[in-house]
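hi! just following up on the protien thing from before. the input was this:
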Amino acid sequence: MFYKADFHNSNANIMIGGTQDNATPASIGDLANWENCGGGDGGFSCINQASPNIQYTTSQNLGVYRTGNYWSSQTTISPSTGSDSKSFISPIVLDPNNYNLLYAGTNYLWRRDDVTAVWTARLGGQLLSASGNLRSIAIAPGDTNRIYTGASDGQVWMSTDKGVSWTQINVG
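and the predicted 3d structure came back as:
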């Protein structure tokens, strides 16, 4: 069973998706031959649309893996989330306006810059889920500053300044 998948926008033979108990199958151009990357329960996956050889996937509890060569090799790039609450299958998403920015969700939002390979922890210091954890992250197409998150406890938050400050939008 696939949890989440991503597809290249112009090459239908490039796709990747996390699966229950079976890591992350990836087609890197030939649908008859698949790689299996990551580990454990595969989760969210992302393809850099500008450079499809760069891909990301997750395993349970926010294990994050990156490749720059279509999974010939991979590097573990998991953030050190400490005591943050995480979903068993935690979300990641690439910024559609800047493929160098990878976001990951706990009960806070984290961002990794692929150029510097540095994670920025707990954007804005804002707890985005008081009694659960993030299940969904979206960056507005055309506006890298506008971020939305949705959590297991029903909280929905929005930032218009790339995570510096947040407004809860599921109230009122």
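The first strand starts at residue 2 and ends at 7.
Residues 47 and 55 are 5 Å apart (CA to CA).
cheers
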